[in-house]
Design a protein that fits this description.
- Its main location: membrane.
- The protein is mainly α.
- It has two domains: about 20-175, no CATH class; about 185-330, no CATH class.
- About 60% of the residues lie in helices and about 0% in strands.
- It has helices spanning about 20-30, 30-40, 45-65, 70-75, 80-90, 95-110, 125-135, 155-160, 175-180, 190-195, 200-225, 230-250, 255-260, 265-275, 285-305, 310-330, 335-340.
- Helix 6 (about 95-110) packs across helix 7, helix 11 packs parallel to helix 14 and helix 12 packs parallel to helix 15 (about 285-305).
- The longest helix is centred in the first third of the chain and has 24 residues, at about 45-65.
Length: about 350
């Protein structure tokens, strides 16, 4: 009699989620933020994303060819597209084409495939590339356009600006709220919010809306159970608690928690970066501690370091600690204590 080869009764194939399906959900979750950034900052967001995705697929194919891996199988999983998308969303609107190209190619070829490909890289590829670009090309990494949806360059003008096909337009870029806060020149918070254009309500609103858009995308991913709440909530709580402590100590010098939560890449980092299952901690407690650590480091580097936004550096530093967290936050094996209690005692 022949035996049938079937799955176990407890296995439901309809609940099995492929890598491609998960990556598709992440891409869908970024749609609100993409729309908000395009509305306030212009067509540069869409151009950067398109260029980044093309470079990512070409870099992925090149790396797979060198490694003699099945090209079509890995190109379909969408991981390269997600890496390119997250990096493009973190880059300035008027980032030159070569900046995006260098960053994406480095993220895929070096930060991902030189460590063995997806699932083996110890550091988040998008954040590795962002840190490289920020350290190597600090001026080009500050070319954020002024957030005004009523006055943005046309698609053709933006395309020409990014690809250097025309003379650069003057007066299009402006400081971000974090830049304005970092270069306070000893002013109090009230003086800063009254004098800095980036901190005016109509300007600051754009960054808040974009942050809320990333938050909505994160809520969608939580609802789809793509990841658990521990890492993102841990990061937001870490920022909120330490910011509140410093604000209580000196309310004239330190911004409130709401400022740090709704500016920069906080929401992007909380719901799309620290939730990376490969480079984050794997245990439940480990993910919570990982998120808290990232949040505290983000605030400390923003406030006392040299860089206004510190999500990339904070994530990379905590990536170093992920194996340590997994080692010391492993959950107890079910029934382990009970089984040991029943063992006979050793005789002296």
């Amino acid at each position: 009699m022949s035996l049938l080869s079937i799955t176990s009764p407890h296995m439901n194939k309809s609940n099995v989620r492929s890598v491609g399906w998960v990556m598709t959900q992440v891409i869908l979750a970024t749609v609100p933020a993409i729309l908000a950034m395009t509305w306030y900052f212009g067509w540069g967001t869409l151009i950067n994303i398109s260029l980044a995705v093309i470079v990512a697929l070409l870099s992925e194919a090149f790396a797979l060819k060198l490694r003699k891996r099945p090209m079509s199988f890995y190109l379909k999983d969408g991981s390269a597209i997600v890496t390119a998308l997250l990096l493009a969303l973190a880059l300035p609107t008027f980032a030159p084409w070569w900046l995006t190209t260098v960053g994406v190619a480095f993220a895929i070829i070096v930060a991902k495939h030189m460590y063995g490909g997806m699932g083996y890289n110890p550091f988040n590829p998008a954040m590795v590339a962002y840190a490289l670009l920020l350290v190597s090309f600090p001026v080009d990494m500050t070319q954020w356009s002024f957030p005004n949806h009523s006055f943005v360059l046309s698609f053709s003008d933006t395309f020409s600006h990014i690809f250097g096909l025309s003379v650069a337009h003057d007066g299009l870029t402006s400081a971000t709220p974090l830049d304005a806060m970092k270069h306070s020149a000893g002013q109090t918070l009230n003086e800063l919010f009254a004098s800095k254009a980036a901190l005016q309500p109509e300007t600051f609103e754009a960054y808040q809306v974009v942050s809320v858009a990333f938050l909505l995308g994160g809520i969608y991913l939580l609802a789809r159970k793509i990841y658990t709440w521990h890492a993102p909530i841990g990061m937001l709580a870490g920022i909120a608690v330490i910011a509140t402590i410093f604000q209580i100590i000196d309310p004239d010098s330190y911004a409130p928690a709401s400022f740090h939560l709704l500016t920069g890449a906080t929401m992007l980092g909380a719901f799309f970066i620290v939730t990376d299952p490969v480079t984050s901690a794997t245990s439940t407690k480990g993910r919570l501690i990982f998120g808290i650590g990232v949040g505290i480091l983000v605030y400390l580097i923003r406030t006392f370091g040299n860089y206004p936004d510190a999500v990339a550096f904070a994530v990379l530093l905590m990536n170093f600690a992920s194996p340590f967290l997994d080692q010391y936050t492993q959950p107890r094996t079910y029934g382990h204590r009970k089984a040991r209690s029943g063992l006979p005692k050793k005789k002296d």
